[in-house]
């Protein structure tokens, strides 16, 4: 390089570089997003396309920049520039557009022959070659370092990941090539020293690993010597003896034998040894060869079911049918393989407190089998059903295997509680895993992820429970036989209280049967005036409260025995909580109708209120209603407007704003069965005719006034009976469903069968 060079003075717009450096002979794409940058590019385009690229670091501009030519600009602000040469940055000023123009002294570089420079270049090439070799990039070193020009060779360092932005700016400002190579030698030597230190550490670690492998071999030899000398307790022999004592299925025995062989070859210091031993212990805990013999006496089974539960005749008959089929197959020599696809998965659906869970225990007693319960409510992890894979720390089998181990038999009565509350998230879908468990065509080869062997569940009697079927996935529901338990009548509740609940609460309170007697009339009074539910949980709580108060009197010595009659109930339980005249109070004014609904807690009455006010014609709905129920309200209003003349309603009365409200606003409500109730409330309001106080109704309404069938008729009728209603309006197609209603309830209720809205209004309005 010559010491004297021809210097060219230029005035160029400046493009600041905040995140990088552009060296001569580089072609790069720059993303220009700032106003300052866009102004500089526009200024360069107006001149000869040249621009000065100046790095900006820590709030200051570099003293040297790179003169570049703009080669391409796209619509997204990407600019392709080609670096030409270095230039010293001089004074500058802003033009009218806001672009910064500076004087730039061009600094072209000319390569010269110089012995000192050649020595620096050779040393630099050696250091860079060593760095690339340490990084495993020796193959590209020759191509990168073959450049003849010392200046261009030094500028290639801009691509090095080992240099910081500040170092790259310092390289750009080093106009003298000797100074530039000196800086690079110093920096790359530090990089090389760091890489060599890391390599030494890696080599030492590898050496330690090889020593550990040698130690492992020596320990194995030592263990073999101990075994020959008889000094080892030999846990493996214990597992082999267990395998000989258990009659495991062939595939299971093979898997266990393989793991025992692995354990035998394993070092005592190996962490995997504890995992294998835990797996073997789990396999031997599963009752592979244990089954309970069924009690197939149908009369005795019916006696057990009848003693444990009052009512529920449909469920009891289905259980007896299941026992009868098993008895005939056993007597006629039908093999298990023939039975495999004849399994029954019973799904008991009903509101809380009707005895779904306790019924599973009764079935187990009737069959003479073990009983095991698995609560599915809130499960979101598929591994809860299928188990965790053995590769995870803390892995264990799923709930199905753990329940079988707890039962100690392969054919228990297995209660899957709260199936409608199974969830799913990123961890998996437990309901999909349950498909295999509950499918009689598949569950003889159920595979738990932890056991990793087929598990035969075909002998298990699965009974599932749920409050509602709407939240159960369709494929899962398809695997079950649904039996509905809709609730109890007041008479049945009284019998349950007398035969089951009161004796249990006496034992819980520490009372003897002779110390507390509750008359039949008092029990009926508690049922009638203190509870309104489909099940008997609230009833049991009230009886427990009564028993505790009597126990307090007995414990104080105030009395030795207590007889509770109707007049005494208020003293123990306080004022009544249920009023049978609520419907008459609510419907005492026009515009209020009593509907019947089904919720997750059983049947219930639903009061729908309507009012009208001055304002823009329209409909306001309140009470946390779902989309279907909102549509039913709009259909009811449209029917009234279309048939106003026939209904005796002045057309001008319809040009106001209507408001329909369903109380208990905190409770979500949806479904089409409130359609006739909304229609009745609107017509009652507009005709000023009250709705009969003793009438409840249910049914879907259409725009033509047709009354369509709905579900849950039995639960709704029982709810009407509990609320003291004596007349119920049901759709024509639901007339056959009334046969499911208990005879004693049907005798006390008058049913109105409706096909058209006019029939509903005739029966409902006073």
Tell me the Rg in angstroms. Answer: 44 Å
What is the CA-CA span between the terminal residues?
A: 115 Å
Number of helices: 28
Which whole number gives the mean pLDDT?
83
CATH class of the largest domain: Alpha Beta
CATH topology of the largest domain: Ribosomal Protein S5, domain 2
Overall geometry = flat
Structural class: alpha/beta
CATH architecture of the largest domain: 2-Layer Sandwich
In short:
This protein is α/β, with parallel strands linked by helices and 766 residues long. The strands form 7 sheets. The chain has a 5-stranded mixed beta barrel with strand order 1-3-5-6-7.
Question: Can you characterise this structure?
Answer:
- There is one protein chain.
- The chain is an alpha/beta fold and 766 residues long.
- It folds into 5 domains: 9-107, Archaeosine Trna-guanine Transglycosylase, Chain: A, domain 4; 235-285; 298-477, P-loop containing nucleotide triphosphate hydrolases (Rossmann fold, 3-Layer(aba) Sandwich), CATH 3.40.50; 490-528 and 537-573, Helicase, Ruva Protein, domain 3 (Orthogonal Bundle), CATH 1.10.8; 582-764, Ribosomal Protein S5, domain 2 (2-Layer Sandwich), CATH 3.30.230.10.
- It is built from 28 helices and 25 strands.
- Helix 18 crosses helix 20.
- The N and C termini lie far apart (115 Å).
């Amino acid at each position: 390089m010559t010491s004297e060079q021809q210097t060219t003075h230029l005035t160029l717009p400046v493009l600041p570089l905040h995140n990088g450096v552009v060296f001569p002979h580089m072609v790069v794409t720059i993303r220009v997003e700032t106003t300052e940058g866009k102004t500089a590019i526009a200024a360069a385009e107006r001149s000869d396309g040249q621009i000065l690229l100046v790095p900006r670091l820590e709030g200051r501009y570099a003293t040297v920049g790179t003169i570049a030519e703009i080669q391409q600009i796209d619509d997204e602000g990407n600019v392709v520039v080609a670096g030409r040469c270095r230039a010293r940055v001089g004074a500058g000023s802003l033009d009218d557009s806001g672009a910064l123009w500076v004087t730039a002294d061009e600094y072209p570089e000319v390569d010269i022959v110089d012995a000192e420079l050649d020595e620096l270049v050779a040393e630099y090439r050696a250091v860079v070659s060593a760095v690339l070799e340490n990084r495993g990039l020796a193959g590209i070193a020759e191509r990168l370092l073959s450049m003849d020009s010392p200046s261009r060779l030094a500028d290639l360092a801009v691509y090095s990941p080992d240099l910081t932005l500040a170092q790259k700016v310092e390289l750009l400002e080093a106009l003298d090539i000797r100074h530039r190579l000196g800086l690079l030698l110093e920096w790359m030597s530090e990089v090389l020293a760091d890489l060599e230190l890391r390599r030494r550490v890696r080599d030492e670690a590898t050496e330690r690993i090889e020593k550990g492998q040698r130690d492992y071999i020596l320990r194995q030899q030592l263990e073999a010597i101990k075994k020959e000398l008889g000094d080892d307790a030999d846990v493996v022999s214990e597992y082999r003896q267990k395998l000989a004592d258990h009659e495991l299925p062939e595939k299971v025995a093979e898997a266990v034998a393989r793991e025992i062989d692995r354990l035998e070859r394993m070092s005592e210091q190996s962490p995997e040894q504890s995992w294998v031993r835990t797996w073997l212990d789990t396999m031997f805990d599963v009752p592979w060869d244990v089954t309970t013999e069924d009690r197939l006496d149908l009369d005795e089974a019916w006696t057990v079911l009848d003693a444990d539960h009052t009512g529920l005749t449909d469920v009891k008959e289905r259980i007896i049918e299941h026992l009868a089929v098993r008895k005939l197959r056993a007597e006629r020599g039908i093999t298990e393989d023939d039975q495999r696809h004849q399994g029954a998965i019973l799904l008991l659906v009903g509101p809380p407190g009707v005895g779904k869970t306790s019924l599973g225990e009764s079935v187990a007693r009737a069959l003479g089998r073990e009983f095991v319960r698995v609560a599915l409510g809130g499960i979101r992890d598929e591994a809860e059903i299928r188990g965790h894979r053995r590769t995870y720390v803390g892995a264990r089998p799923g709930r199905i295997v753990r329940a079988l181990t707890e039962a100690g038999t392969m054919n228990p009565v297995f209660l899957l509680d709260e199936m409608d509350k199974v969830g799913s998230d990123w961890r998996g879908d437990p309901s999909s895993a349950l498909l295999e468990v509950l499918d009689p065509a598949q569950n003889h080869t159920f595979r738990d992820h932890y056991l990793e062997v087929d598990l035969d569940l075909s002998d298990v009697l699965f009974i599932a429970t749920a409050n509602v079927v709407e939240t159960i996935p369709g494929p899962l529901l398809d695997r079950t036989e649904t039996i509905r338990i809709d609730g109890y009548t007041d008479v049945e509740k009284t019998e349950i209280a007398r035969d089951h609940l009161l004796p249990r609460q006496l034992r819980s309170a520490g009372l003897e049967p002779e110390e507390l007697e509750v008359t039949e009339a008092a029990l009926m009074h508690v049922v009638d005036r203190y509870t309104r539910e489909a099940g008997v949980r609230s009833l049991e709580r009230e009886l427990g409260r009564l028993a505790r108060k009597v126990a307090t009197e007995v414990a104080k010595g105030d009395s030795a025995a207590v007889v509770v009659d109707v007049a005494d109930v208020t003293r123990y339980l306080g004022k009544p909580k249920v009023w049978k005249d609520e419907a008459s109070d609510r419907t005492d004014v026009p515009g209020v109708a009593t509907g019947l609904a089904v919720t997750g807690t059983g049947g219930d009455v639903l009061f729908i209120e309507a009012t009208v006010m001055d304002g823009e014609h329209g409909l306001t709905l309140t009470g946390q209603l779902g989309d279907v129920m909102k549509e039913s309200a709009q259909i009811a209003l449209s029917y009234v407007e279309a048939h106003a003349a026939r209904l005796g309603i002045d057309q001008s009365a319809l040009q106001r704003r209507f408001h329909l409200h369903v109380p208990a606003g905190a409770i979500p409500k949806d479904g089409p069965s409130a359609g006739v109730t909304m229609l009745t409330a609107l017509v009652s309001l507009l005709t000023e005719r009250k709705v009969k106080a003793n009438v409840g109704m249910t049914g879907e309404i259409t725009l033509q006034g047709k009354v369509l069938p709905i579900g849950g008729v039995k639960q709704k009728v029982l709810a009407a009976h509990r609320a003291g209603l004596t007349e119920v309006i049901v759709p024509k197609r639901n007339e056959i469903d009334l046969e499911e209603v208990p005879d004693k309830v049907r005798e006390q209720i008058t049913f109105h069968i409706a096909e058209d809205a006019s029939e509903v209004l005739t029966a409902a309005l006073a």
